[in-house]
Amino acid sequence: MSVTAVTLGNFKTEILDAKEPVLVDFWAEWCNPCRMLAPVVESLAGEYEGKIRFCKVNIDEASDLAVTYGVMSIPTLVLFSGGQEKARTVGLQNAEKLRAWLDSQA
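The structure assignment produced for this chain is given below.
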């Protein structure tokens, strides 16, 4: 499973209207920790296929979404469920910590 790129145009349908929980990675191309986190998120997307949808929002291309959701530092991962923010974590983390964080939200 891959991570879906989301913009302002498809945010509602991909995230807010999703039936399953959605993890959104707010990132930017110039952000080194974001680039380091990307393969971890890709790997987790495969592990959680069918349970959690994984999406990413480039804050340079969708700054309105970053403002709307109060993203002040990147990378920021926000878990949505039923169209509402359920949990958030900020900063570079390894797969084990993110897996434990996701499992604790279930």
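Interim note for the steering committee: The chain is about 35% helix and 25% strand. The first strand starts at residue 4 and ends at 5.
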